[in-house]
Records
---
Amino acid sequence: MPAFKPDQTPAPADSIRGKRVLLLVSGGIASYKSCTLVRRLMDAGCSVRVAMTDSATRFVAPMTFEALSGQAVGTSLWGTGGEDPLDHIQWAREAHAVVVAPATANFLAKMALGLADDLPSTLVTATDVPLLVAPAMNDRMWSNPPNQEHLQVLRSRGVHVVEPGTGFLACGTVAEGRMAEPEEITRAVIDQLAPGPLRGSHVLITGGGTREPIDTVRFIGNRSSGRMGIALAEAARDLGAKVTLLLGPGDLSDPMGVDVHRFETAASLGELVKHHAPSAHMIAMAAAVSDYRVVDPAKQKLKKDDGVPDIQLEASPDILAGLGAARDTGQCLIGFALQTGSDAEVETQASAKLARKHCDLVCGNRADRPGEGFEGDRNRIYLVDRSGHGEWLAPASKRQLSRHIFERAIALFTESPAPTKANRA
Ligand SMILES: Cc1cc2nc3c(=O)[nH]c(=O)nc-3n(C[C@H](O)[C@H](O)[C@H](O)COP(=O)(O)O)c2cc1C
């Protein structure tokens, strides 16, 4: 079993060589800095396509961007120079990252609402690659509540906001709202596109619920949907890991770029874990594994006329405890503990599980509050780790919480030596 060693060194600048960046320029005075941004991104080895709003063309001529990028600049939804209008959507599909710089208050509002009434705003609705915005505006426009609300909406959707700095604004004041420097925006693109601190690590994740057969058509199951497991897999992938996801039954589609294997019973999950765990640097066990299974499931459908069946149960193997007991090389082990009861009970149970199953981190969560635990896209988690640190993470999407969990694991393994059997309590 390999030891988990996060790679915290910044990704080298040339790790985005060959990537395609789509730069959307909206109508702010800072658009002159976007000319330098094109250069910086090209210095890092990217090719850059530029599309401009009508207002942006009043600040910088499209020809300037065309000369700098060496590529045609898009200014109209309806095609220019005989291009097929549909090509413009193609620009969004071809890009590895989309950057809006400068992002005006108007453009941010349109993004938050999903409005698509010109070329750049249409392109931004047609992409699913990392999306970065570099707002630039007067300080009052910046702190205007609707503007801050739009930014919050965008952040919650995973848009990366390259925060503006404080400095001399075009309106003559020194205040917050000045667009981040081109070098900082380029660094943010590198951080988004280059493999993150889980590069070189194999992360094994389980998610979803088990089904223990009673007969050939009935089973003992639970409400786990697999959403937490999928969110963990996507977050680990985005941090640079090679990810294996063991996923229970359900309608959710497999996440992209992840090696997915399906299971039904606790026994089949146990077999898959046995196969994949030895090569994993980190294991996150979010699957809801049945504690009991039917001793001898009927080989045919049980008939109602035969009366109420006498179903004998036995304990299923405890996969998490088995992993905790077996590992001896600093492999990182993350468990989940779903409870009903008060927050205090969740905290106690999560800490007890951490010690009992020899985990590095345990994520306690509640099944008895709306919008938490099973099924939904959001959750609230009590994250406790082997250093004794425990905290409730603010309610958030499962994807955001997953990222937080991995960041905590990375910090834990950077701060304190990985435990082995010898130094484990
Ligand atoms: C001289 C001038 C400078 C401007 N600078 C900014 C700015 O820095 N940030 C901003 O959000 N809007 C700025 N605006 C207002 C935008 O250009 C305006 O809201 C426009 O509708 C934005 O269109 P767009 O988002 O489609 O590019 C400026 C307007 C003018 C006339």
Note: DSSP finds 13 helices and 19 strands in the chain.
---
Amino acid sequence: METADAVVVGGGPAGSTSARKLREAGLDVLVLDKAVFPRDKPCAGWVTPQVFEECRVDPEEYRLGGRTLQPITAFRTGLIGGRELETSWARPVSWGIRRREFDTFLLARSGARLKTGTALTSLARSREGASWIVNETIATPLVIGAGGHFCPVARSLNGGGMPEPVVAAQELELRMDDRQSRACAVVPEAPELWFCRDLRGYGWCFRKGEYLNVGLGREDRNGLPGHLNAFVEFLKAANRIPSDLRGDYKGHAYLLAPSSTRRVTGDGMVLVGDAAGLAWPESGEGIRTAVESALLAARVVAEARGDYGVARLEPYRQRLEERFGKRGRLRWARQLPEGLVSALAAVLMSSRAFTRRVLLERWFLRMGMAALEDPPAMVGPPQKGSGTYFALPGVVPVRGAGKGSVR
Ligand SMILES: Cc1cc2nc3c(=O)[nH]c(=O)nc-3n(C[C@H](O)[C@H](O)[C@H](O)COP(=O)(O)OP(=O)(O)OC[C@H]3O[C@@H](n4cnc5c(N)ncnc54)[C@H](O)[C@@H]3O)c2cc1C
């Protein structure tokens, strides 16, 4: 039987950040992902600067090797079918990346052992109940569920089939040819955000170098295809995107932090990122919350010093709520009549002050919310009988059969 101090299921931003931090804390970490990297992930690829800080990635280092990194210094916003406002800043306030490049980069530098192209197919308690047996071949005291919205670890912790108030989104990302590039009026430094009049979702149009990403996300998945179609037609009629833009729109679902009621910890189990349902409610930004939840989880795991009983992992839930707000509550806009929301939307979205200060700087960019402090790996003496050890300065502890190499 293979062993690992922790098995991370999913190698997206939540999984790779968990893996990196647990490796730094001295654990032997194995990441399973059903996909082979580089893999595509439906996502606009808009990333706030705090994410680079939290991942300890220098944008210039990232750009090396020809990866797409589009600086964003402005946003164009408006109601779909209406007029737009442009809001700009003197420096980049966000970046545009391509997920297949970004996720591969983060996963490769996590330092963990990787088993890509390997799905989680079974998860069971060992006979003596002290560890998890993953895919009948790997024994581990800790499983991190980072498999996105449909994460099998989240299902095992929460049970399947529960109706959840998901955001459903569809998008198309394609490389434009020269003619399409000339016919595209979207400015790379100024992505466009177009809001539905009922404020239940928004569409985006995002140019990253030679790539164009167009999509729309909504809180009611039934209306999605109609809203997306109307949005794309509006963009074409307004000459924002080439009229011959065609391709397969790919969809995915995710949960906003306030509406998620998923349990996030269990015995020897922690959920991070979309598996826990953590996207910011106003913007749907989920990369930052994926990374931050992974940092919070890794800290709690390190503090538990090998005792991964649910009580020792419970502080993680509390820290999530301190950071992302109370879970399982209704959003304020859902409590107002729809007519009032539409009238309010028209007034607010034409206000320059509201758009800059509230919509963009507070809700989308979270400028007042500094990057989560990411201290160096926590160290501490092993808990008696825990079987898992953390790095003490200058000591190289090894767990089990010579795994867990620690620097
Ligand atoms: C259309 C769309 C646009 C978006 N745009 C943005 C944006 O611009 N900016 C932003 O911040 N957020 C955006 N989001 C949200 C963001 O994409 C997610 O919140 C983010 O990807 C969550 O990261 P994660 O690591 O939790 O999960 P994921 O990135 O989904 O990674 C999960 C990983 O788990 C693997 N996996 C799944 N099942 C298994 C299994 N059984 N066994 C093993 N591995 C498994 C998958 O292959 C995948 O690699 C968007 C979402 C959508 C749907």
Note: The pocket of flavin-adenine dinucleotide is lined by residues 9-15, 32-35, 41-46, 119-120, 146-148, 151-152, 169, 171, 215, 252, 254, 273-275, 279, 284-288, 290 (CB under 6 Å).
---
Amino acid sequence: MSISLNINGEDRLYHGDPRTSLLDVLRDTYRMTGAKSVCSAGFCGACTVHVDGVAVPACLRPVGLLDGAAITTIEGAAPLDTLSALQAAFAEHDVVQCGMCFPGMVMSLTAFLRDAPAPSRAKVKTAMVGNLCRCTGYERIIDAVMSLQDSESAA
Ligand code: FES
Ligand code: FES
């Protein structure tokens, strides 16, 4: 079966089993290993990508249901060799430890901030509920997100 995908702005024609998860297609076929395979069951959020602009766990999406979809992965979150404002804030706040949660966290929060550019701290916490981090305790991540508002109001 052939499935048309647009991944990070590039058209791709996937030939294979339509039951294969989008996560496996990204990682195994296209060697985009930014989305992480951790629980493979929709619990951890480490595999989060955007499908038609919506943050979803790629491990739960059979690729056969995605014909014609636009996919954005962490590799497409910012132009090559640059960081998005959120990624830069993560770096400034020393958010990343082991890094397994980081790509999914960025993708979930990027979609959230697009729709809610000036969220409260409580709303940021709620937005992160689908992304588990075993290392950081979350506070630095929230600090990083909140700092985006500080830098915008200072500009
Ligand atoms: S690997 Fe997809 S939610 Fe955990
Ligand atoms: S930095 Fe290790 S799981 Fe989040």
Note: The first strand starts at residue 2 and ends at 7.
